[in-house]
Amino acid sequence: MMPDLGKYAFAVLSSYGVTIVLLSVIVLVSFWRARKVRAALDEIENRRGN
Description:
By secondary structure, the protein is mainly α. About 80% of the residues lie in helices and about 0% in strands.
């Protein structure tokens, strides 16, 4: 059950919403960046190995 937030309900709930969105974006960007860096490292290793 959600507690009664009174006149602050919009501010509290929108803050939670913004936080969830921003954390999701950070996680997605981190995974995207990790994949990009891994591909670059694999390419460098392949060039040095040949």
